[in-house]
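C-alpha cells for chain A. Residues wanted.
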C-alpha cells in the first residue's frame, strides 16, 4: 500500500513542514505496515467521498490534509480539513502526521 500525505495551511503555515510525505508499507516493518493498513481499513478510506463533511466557517486558518492511497488496483484521494469529525479518519491522519514529522 502506498500513501501520499500532504498537509497545508494552518494559522502558522510553515512550508518546510508541508512537504509531501510518501509512505510505502512494503518498506516498513511488518508491525508498522499492519498498523497503517488497519487504520486505512477502519476508516473505510476507499468508501469515503473526496471531501467528507463540510468546511466550518472561518476555516481559512485550519489545516487541510490530502491523502491518496493506492492499494493494488484501488486508488482514492480525499481532502480533509480540521477538525476531522470521523474518529477513524482522525486517527489515520494523526498517525501519518507523526510518521511524517517524528519528534526528536
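Reply:
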Amino acid at each position: 500500500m502506498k500513501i501520499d500525505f500532504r498537509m497545508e495551511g494552518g494559522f502558522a503555515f510553515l512550508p518546510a513542514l508541508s512537504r509531501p510525505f510518501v509512505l510505502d508499507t512494503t518498506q516498513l516493518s511488518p508491525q508498522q505496515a499492519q498498523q497503517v493498513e488497519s487504520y486505512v481499513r477502519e476508516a473505510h478510506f476507499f468508501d469515503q467521498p473526496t471531501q467528507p463533511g463540510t468546511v466550518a466557517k472561518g476555516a481559512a486558518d485550519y489545516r487541510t490534509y490530502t491523502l491518496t492511497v493506492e492499494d493494488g488496483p484501488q486508488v482514492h484521494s480525499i481532502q480533509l480539513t480540521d477538525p476531522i469529525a470521523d474518529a477513524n479518519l482522525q486517527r489515520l491522519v494523526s498517525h501519518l502526521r507523526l510518521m511524517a514529522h517524528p519528534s526528536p
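The mean pLDDT is 88. The chain has one domain: 2-100.
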